[in-house]
Amino acid sequence: xxxxxxxxxxxxxxxxxxxxxxxxxxxxxxxxxxxxxxxxxxxxxxxxxxxxxxxxxxxxxxxxxxxxxxxxxxxxxxxxxxxxxxxxxxxxxxxxxxxxxxxxxxxxxxxxxxxxxxxxxxxxxxxxxxxxxxxxxxxxxxxxxxxxxxxxxxxxxxxxxxxxxxxxxxxxxxxxxxxxxxxxxxxxxxxxxxxxxxxxxxxxxxxxxxxxxxxxxxxxxxxxxxxxxxxxxxxxxxxxxxxxxxxxxxxxxxxxxxxxxxxxxxxxxxxxxxxxxxxxxxxxxxxxxxxxxxxxxxxxxxxxxxxxxxxxxxxxxx
Length: 318
Description:
The protein is an alpha/beta fold. It has helices spanning 2-29, 57-69, 79-83, 100-120, 130-134, 266-276, 294-317, and strands at 45-49, 73-77, 92-95, 124-128, 136-141, 144-147, 153-159, 171-177, 192-197, 202-204, 212-217, 223-230, 233-238. 34% of the residues lie in helices and 23% in strands. The strands form two sheets. Strands 2-1-3-4-13-12-11-8-9 form a nine-stranded mixed beta sheet. A four-stranded mixed beta sheet has the order 6-5-7-10. The chain is globular.
């Protein structure tokens, strides 16, 4: 009987050791990011709006490659997808440059309402150039003001900026980074960036409450990039094009490579995007794990085996 008891005890402790070793292995190999320790967009699902067939292509491609560089998963969504409610499968919607009036027409009242609901319920919105115009309550284009329906930004997008390039011309422009921002830490960013300007807006609002200017156009000191909360969601709008990497092909776009942006804005956009998804669990992020190092796992496993050996020894002594 004593031998049977020893055998049962031994088998039980061995089984326990195997289970714990398996769990520790998973903990070592799977170190999921949580909102508190996120260093990139791993586990974040981004919907890039297809937009206009021709005018959106270059911006759309560059944005897709930029977010993939951030380790986000990306999909292209058409107006029909958004109208059908498919934004609920994503954490962020990205609206590229192109033609804002086309976006309004394609999405219609239903698609626009879906985007607004998505952001209100906690989604992130990233709009560039036409995508930024599209998010404004009003736009003033070449001196004429138009009402827009999405109305995430309670203000006016104003363009084009003739001091930089009158429409339909384009050119590099200088933006000054707001190192005093109280929502995003831009330490490590240069004081200015050289960014492609292609008819995008600067942002005006009678009430600046809750609207944070992240960068200004050096030529007129107007807001070039803004960020703010919208109910439970967060919004980033940019007049110029930080997604284009002039003099580089990593953005999968070549038309602007005759220019030199004297650096990249992608690191800055990473910081912006981390702020956009901060504080909520991604719909695709795996549950948090222990995130133990290999050395920690070995130490715990060794301790466990010592405990098993002592337990077996005590049973034998009885």
